[in-house]
Amino acid sequence: MQVSQVDLGSNTMYLPDSKNGEGRLMVMTDKVRELVAQCVKGKKPTDYVFTRDGNRPVKSHYKSWREAMREAQVPTLHFQDLRRTATRNLVRAGVPKSVAQQVTGHLDPKVFDRYDISDLADLQDAKKKLDKSAIPAAIQN
């Protein structure tokens, strides 16, 4: 991604390529904007956003990711797991499914649904909501 594809004024970045092969416009969270601003500071529009020493573009993150996971002592965490976490967090935050799908880049709703995994906390939350609902106790049993 080049600096010209980042618009700090509107908090957006254009991702020219993605897993599904299509580019898309993304809105940056405040933290992402802060970090990206550091990456683009002083660079020309044709420079790459993510670079190594000597302004060389980052072509792969896998080696750095493996090293970071080893240092964090979570060697089984895969980069792709972050997409699953993002999907779950968006749904749990109440973001409409169609918008969450756009953010995560899932073209197929079935794939999106597979990423939205329920866990014990979700089941406990459902129980709390049911307990607070106006549904008669006889129906709940």
Q: What distance separates the N and C termini?
A: 55 Å
Total of DSSP H or I helical runs spanning 4+ residues: 7
Q: What Rg, in angstroms, do the CA atoms define? A: 20 Å
Mean of all residue-level pLDDT scores: 86
| Number of spatially distinct domains | 2
Low-confidence stretches: none
Strand order of the largest sheet: 1-2-3
Helix vs. strand class: mainly alpha
What does this structure look like?
- Helices cover 46% and strands 10% of the residues.
- The mean pLDDT is 86.
- The protein folds into two domains: 1-59, no CATH class; 77-134, no CATH class.
- With 141 residues, it is mainly alpha-helical.
- The strands form two sheets. The protein has a three-stranded antiparallel beta sheet with strand order 1-2-3, with helices on one face. Strands 4-5 form a two-stranded antiparallel ribbon.
- The radius of gyration is 20 Å and the shape is elongated.
- It has seven helices and five strands.
Short key terms for the protein model shown above:
141 residues, mainly alpha, 2 domains, three-stranded antiparallel sheet, 7 helices, elongated
List the helices and strands and how they pair.
Layout: E1 6-7, E2 12-15, E3 24-27, H1 30-40, E4 51-52, E5 56-57, H2 62-71, H3 81-92, H4 97-104, H5 109-115, H6 120-132, H7 137-140
Antiparallel strand pairs: 1-2, 2-3, 4-5
